[in-house]
Design a protein that fits this description.
The complex is a heterodimer. Chain A is of the alpha/beta class. Chain A contains twelve helices and 19 strands. Chain A has two domains: 196 residues, Rossmann fold, CATH 3.40.50.2300; 161 residues, 3-Layer(aba) Sandwich (Rossmann fold). Helices cover 38% and strands 18% of the residues of chain A. By secondary structure, chain B is of the alpha+beta class. Chain B is globular and about 90 Å long. About 1% of the residues of chain B have low confidence. Classes of the chains: A alpha/beta, B alpha+beta.
Chain lengths: 436, 532
């Protein structure tokens, strides 16, 4: 039964390709009533990052469609403009410029990796565009033109460590892929653990190259490190794809979640849907949203998503919620400002609150990050998460970590009179010279 | 009609007889729907005490997170998600109870603590059942998460246990539990039992003991001595383990490179699409597993010839449509095949979706083989090691003993002379390329057991494959074998000391230096135009 339906899906995919190509041609010639508001979508649908970003492109398209069904914004229809930066970092900057200059978009939803965000940042600042960035990241940044709707380290990593500490964990393996997000996050975590009295000998840091697939010796080392009789956990900032062989090796070497739990920051429902989840049961993930969250807002969102994408087996995940929040905040700010002009929206959006999907409200903070609750979930057999912990209050995203020496004194505040992304509270001045 | 009514009355009678216990068991199960963590243990004990045959299935479902509270009537049911709906079943009997929507059910909360609790409860029950291996597993589960009754249960069991190894396991288990107790004499008697044990639980118990304040010094010292001895032993085992890891990495390198050793090594075609041919093999495995749901192992075995055919055919098409026009022009070949690799990747992305596909590992390839206590070799790695050697031997035999092999060697050594002797060199080229591609597909089947099956699978292996072939000496299969295993072992021996990133850099540096002084590789091809 299952096989036949998969084959049918394959055939329909091929057909769908042809149809989308046709639809693309016809949609551009369709007549619009009134001047449309243009929403740019800057997500890769080809190349290595397509695995994660395609879903986000579809999410934005769905949100645009829903908004149009509600009558658009300011009495004008919305129109999505999709470009494909093809997982190529310099191309991200080129495509961003194309969106802002050629297509004259009013807002852009996009990027996944930090390097792609860094690559488009100068373009958005130069042309004064608006970018909503939906992925958890390492922090240490706040731009006038970017709104960070994903988690900052204090909204993901630190609560996860707190949870494990409460579970009695004493020894820590910090395993990560060798690039900026894990390096910064681990630096923050090391400082945080030290401040909680964890000895240096009880922290073991290990980095692996991108796409690492041979985890034998590292898992053996983790086993030895955790074999002292004191409770040990792995905090994993291992990048998406390398996680599967990592978990497989853990399971094969007989390490299960009750011996040494692994808490990951980049494994979500979408990633689990491509994995045989049996060996992962009980390992943890920290996010601000899980598909299994029980709230009516979430059920509505899931129903709408499944109907939009036309496949009942698809899942929802944290970055999708971030786009949902970001999109609604932007829409609310546009209505508040009465215009889509970037400077007006930048002023109007601060303080805007919209419902999140886990049953509370998310607020845009003056540092362009948002407040949201932190959830810890355990992986279940069916690729979903069981929420085992939720912070009672929403946590406010912190652009500059309190646990890093260089950034402790910095503060981002985009309200008048400061208008500064990196205000030094001791020297009482803005480090960047763009205080207009 | 009479028969049916008889059955009905009989059923009713049986129900009435079973009613008192069944009803309270149901109540207990339904209580799980909103029980606090403190009283949950009691409820579980009550359910276990009912001795209902369905309890094990119930606990298993609970631990898997498959129990739901049906919000419509407050009962606890077993559920399975099918797309947007949930198929409900009775948790004890498995009778179907219809379907429910997402809003009708709420999953009973499970976490690692609960799972451990359930495992221990079941293990206590299974101490005296099943084969010796199952009993040992049950004993270990009991020791891993001891409860107040664990020691007594183990003690009660030891008198009845006939199997020697299980008995020994029981004694050690009781000893480990005793270390945490108050009775100094019992601790003194238990310590010698634990000599030579290297498992985590024993070492943990020893570590806690050596730090306790209420234990005499000499006992602490004895515990410490046992710990150092265990660590010494583990260090030795770690060295053997590292060697195995190296061989295993070598076998993966060998598998991914061996197809290239033919297309690049023997034919001299720089085939950048080699990785994508591996990827196609992995996808073939996935497709077969979808066609044969329920028997992933059989699908995996069938995937070996199927992947050979699929990748071989694609290779044949690539050769006929692109490469044959570019023989002797390496730079153009490189660019053209790189283009082919991008086309293949995007094709897979469009047809199968950019998301990774989940290839199931059959149960006989999961887990590990415990060679010695503390030295366990994982089955999937062992299987791939053996498989890679088998593929290598088959290929070697093909090149040496078959007509095709003879022709391939002839063409690669001296094309003009081979043609003069009547070898149809174009046909040989096409077949050789198809052969190399097919072998890449076979490698993909094996790799699907280790890593992600996604459009990018090939990219992560292409560089390593070229390294192995160049290091081994272009055109020499034995060179590829030696190169793969020595690179594997070398990097795995380095890794514990330097970390994975630096190990990779050092290996690359070493290779560069080696190729500087010996550009023809380890085992250069002999022959009249060898090495040119």
């Amino acid at each position: 039964m299952r096989s036949r339906s998969t084959l049918r899906i394959l055939v329909s995919r091929i057909a769908a390709l042809a149809i989308t190509a046709l639809a693309f041609l016809t949609s551009s010639t369709m007549a619009q009533t009134g001047e449309p508001i243009r929403v740019g979508v800057l997500h890769s649908v080809s190349g290595t990052m397509a695995i994660s970003e395609t879903t986000l492109k579809d999410t934005v398209l769905m949100l645009v469609e829903q908004q149009n069904a509600r009558g658009g914004l300011l009495g004008r229809p919305l129109e999505a403009v999709v470009v494909d930066p093809a997982s190529d970092w310099p191309l991200f900057a080129e495509k961003a410029r194309e969106l802002l200059v050629r297509d004259q978009v009013d807002v852009v939803f996009g990027c996944w990796t930090s390097v792609s965000r860094k690559s488009v940042l100068p373009v958005f600042e130069e042309l004064d565009g608006l970018l909503f960035y939906p992925v958890q990241y390492e922090g240490e940044e706040s731009s006038k033109n970017v709104f960070y709707t994903g988690a900052a380290p204090n909204q993901q990593a630190i609560p996860a460590v707190d949870y494990l500490m409460a579970q009695g964990i004493e020894r820590w393996v910090l395993a990560g892929t060798d690039y900026v997000y894990p390096r910064t996050t681990n630096k923050i975590l090391q400082a945080y653990l030290a401040s909680k009295g964890v000895a240096e000998d009880d922290i073991f840091v290990s980095y692996t190259p991108f796409g690492h697939s041979d985890w034998q010796s590292i898992v053996a080392e983790i086993k030895r490190f955790g074999g002292t009789g004191r409770a040990t956990a792995v905090v994993s900032t291992v990048n998406g794809d390398a996680n599967v062989p990592f978990y497989k090796e853990l399971a094969n070497q007989g390490v299960n979640a009750s011996d040494i739990p692994v808490v990951a920051f980049s494994v979500g429902e979408e990633e689990l849907s491509g994995i045989d989840t049996a060996p992962l049961v009980g390992h943890l993930a920290a996010w601000n949203y899980f598909m299994s969250v029980e709230s009516d807002a979430n059920y509505d969102f899931i129903d709408a998503w499944l109907a939009y994408i036309g496949d009942e087996d698809r899942v929802t995940n944290d970055p999708m919620e971030a786009h949902y929040i970001g999109f609604n905040m932007w829409a609310k700010a546009v209505e508040k400002a009465g215009t889509t002009a970037a400077p007006a929206v930048q002023d109007a959006i601060i303080g805007v609150s919209v419902p999140n999907l886990s049953g509370g409200m998310a607020t845009m903070l003056p540092n362009h990050h948002i407040s949201k609750p932190v959830l810890i979930g355990e992986i279940l057999d069916d690729g979903q998460f069981q929420v085992v912990f939720e912070t009672p209050e929403p946590i406010e995203g912190d652009a500059w970590s309190d646990y890093l020496p260089g950034s402790r004194d910095l503060q981002a505040d985009w309200t008048a009179p400061r208008h500064c992304g990196n205000y030094h509270t001791v020297e009482q001045r803005c480090l960047a010279g763009d205080t207009d | 009609m009479p028969l049916r009514s008889f059955a009905f009355w009989l059923g009713l009678l049986l129900c009435a007889l079973a009613l008192p216990t069944a009803a309270s068991l149901r109540d207990d199960i339904n209580r799980l729907g909103d029980v606090s963590n403190d009283t949950r243990g009691e409820v579980l004990q009550d359910i276990l005490a009912s001795d209902h045959p369905g309890v094990e299935a119930l606990f298993d479902a609970y631990g898997r997170g498959a129990l739901y509270l049906d919000r419509r009537n407050g009962t606890v049911v077993q559920g399975e998600r099918k797309g947007a709906r949930y198929e409900l079943r009775d948790p004890l009997t498995g009778d179907e109870l219809g379907v429910a929507g997402r809003r009708d059910v709420r999953r009973l909360r499970v976490d690692n603590n609960l799972r451990e609790e359930l495992d221990t409860l079941l293990a206590l029950r299974q101490l005296g059942t099943g084969d010796p291996d199952a009993r040992v597993a049950a004993i270990r589960a009991v020791v891993a998460a001891p409860t107040s009754g664990s020691a007594a249960a183990l003690q009660a069991r030891i008198a009845q246990e006939a199997d020697l190894t299980v008995r020994e396991e029981l004694e050690v288990a009781i000893g480990v539990l005793a270390l945490a107790g108050e009775d100094i004499d019992v601790i003194r008697r238990s310590l010698p039992l634990l000599a030579g044990r290297t498992d985590i639980i024993t070492r943990g118990a020893l570590a806690t003991l050596s730090q306790r304040a209420d234990v005499p010094k000499e006992l602490k010292r004895q515990a410490q001595k046992l710990m150092t001895r265990a660590e010494e032993k583990l260090r030795w085992l770690a060295r053997i383990e590292a060697l195995f890891f190296g061989l295993s990495l070598g076998s993966v390198l060998l598998l991914s490179a061996i197809g290239l050793a033919i297309t690049f090594g023997v034919m001299g075609v720089i085939n950048m699409a080699h990785g994508e041919l591996i990827m196609l093999g992995a996808y073939t495995t996935w497709v077969l597993q979808q066609v044969l749901p329920g028997s992933p192992g059989l699908a995996l075995v069938l995937a070996i010839p199927a992947a050979f055919l699929v990748s071989g055919l694609v290779g044949l098409v690539i050769e006929r449509s692109v490469i044959r026009f570019l023989y002797g022009r390496p730079l153009e070949t490189l660019l053209a095949t790189f283009g082919v690799s991008l086309v293949l990747q995007q094709a897979v992305r469009s047809i199968f979706s950019p998301l990774n596909r989940s290839v199931v590992t059959p149960s006989w390839l999961s887990g590990s083989w415990e060679l010695l206590p503390g030295l366990a070799l994982t089955y999937n790695r062992l299987a791939i090691l053996v498989f890679s050697l088998a593929v290598f031997a088959a290929l070697l035999a093909l090149m040496r003993y078959t007509r095709l092999g003879l022709q391939v060697r002839a063409v690669s050594q001296n094309r003009a002379m081979a043609r003069a002797l009547g070898v149809r060199s174009h046909r040989v080229d096409a077949l050789t390329f198809a052969l190399g591609s097919g072998v890449a597909g076979v490698a993909g089947v094996a790799l699907s057991q280790l890593t992600n099956v996604g459009p990018n699978l090939g990219q992560s292996y292409i560089i390593d494959s070229f390294l192995v072939v160049v290091f081994g000496g272009v055109g020499n299969l034995w060179g590829t074998l030696v190169a793969a295993f020595s690179l594997g072992v070398f990097s795995k021996l380095l890794e514990p000391a330097t970390g994975a990133v630096l190990a990779k850099i050092l290996v690359l540096l070493g290779l560069i230096l080696f190729l500087q002084s010996r550009p023809q590789g380890l085992f250069p091809r002999r022959g009249r135009d060898g090495g040119t």
